[in-house]
Every structure is written in C-alpha cells, then in structure tokens.
Specification:
Helices cover 26% and strands 32% of the residues. It is globular, with a radius of gyration of 14 Å. It has one domain: Gcn5-related N-acetyltransferase (GNAT) (Aminopeptidase, 3-Layer(aba) Sandwich), CATH 3.40.630.30. Strand 2 and strand 3 form a beta hairpin. The model has no long low-confidence stretch (mean pLDDT 93). By secondary structure, it is α+β, with helices and mostly antiparallel strands. It has a 7-stranded mixed β-sheet, with helices on both faces.
Length: 145
C-alpha cells in the first residue's frame, strides 16, 4: 500500500485527468457520450472531497468522497481503463475508507453500477435492501466502519 497515495487534485493537469477518467470510464464507457459535466457544482460543494489515486506517482483512479458524518458517500469511483483489474480499485476504496474514518464517519455508502456489485461485496460492502436501485439503475451499497 506504500506505493499508493490518495490526494486532492492540486493542479490543472490533475484536474484534467480526474475529469477525463470519470468521463471516459463512467459515462462514455457506458454509452453516455456528451453528458458529463465537469463544472457540476457538487464538485466544489462544502464537505465534498474530489480525490485522485496515485500509484507510484501515476494517476490511476478517482473518487469523490462526500462527508456528512457519520456517513461518507463514495461518488463516481473509477479506475483508468488501461489499468483496471490490477488491484487499484481495492487500494482506492481502502484509502477512501481511511479518509472517511479520519473524518469521524462510521458508515460508507456508494451507489454502484450493477456490474460492480460483486467487486464492492468482495471489498466488504453489502447491498442496502432498503434502496434497491435508483433511476439510473445504480445499487446502493453500504459498509460499517
């Protein structure tokens, strides 16, 4: 885990990569071309923390962690397409969990695509049966810290 860092995008290049990964993996990769809004006001809202995952100083993943203690919501979690299935997603969630715990959160929530449910379950999340799916087909997953 020492090869990984979860940091806030600090310069225009990091912000560009943050948005490119989200757009390419979570939108265009799922057939939603031309709808990603990198200027969405939620990106800069109080308590919202955009983060990038660095692996040996290479930017490989992104997440936004919304803190509303005792809950943290993981939003738009994505690993760059060319480095998926290499363990980066697990590292990203682990570091995001540490960030949430440091902010006094006791429960993690994330709306995930149905094809990602198994991955989240392997990372200790469970399907929240009180919220089956939202209008985009995302499944609510939760994990207690």
């Amino acid at each position: 885990m020492t090869d990984y860092k979860l940091v806030s995008p600090a310069d225009p290049t990091a912000w560009r990569s943050y948005h490119d990964i989200r757009r390419q993996v979570l939108f265009e990769g799922r057939g939603h071309v031309g709808v990603y809004n990198e200027n969405h006001p939620d990106e800069r809202a109080p308590g919202h923390h955009p983060k990038v995952l660095l692996f040996q100083d290479d930017l490989v993943g992104v997440i936004r962690i919304d803190i509303a203690a005792p809950h943290a919501i993981f939003r738009r979690v994505a690993i760059r397409a060319d480095v998926q299935r290499c363990g980066h997603g697990r590292a990203l969630l682990s570091l995001a969990e540490r960030f949430a715990a440091a902010h006094k959160c006791r429960q993690l929530l994330s709306y995930v695509a149905s094809d990602a449910v198994g991955f989240y379950q392997r990372c200790g999340f469970a399907v929240d049966l009180s919220h089956i799916a939202n209008d985009e087909g995302a499944v609510l997953m939760q994990k207690s810290l």
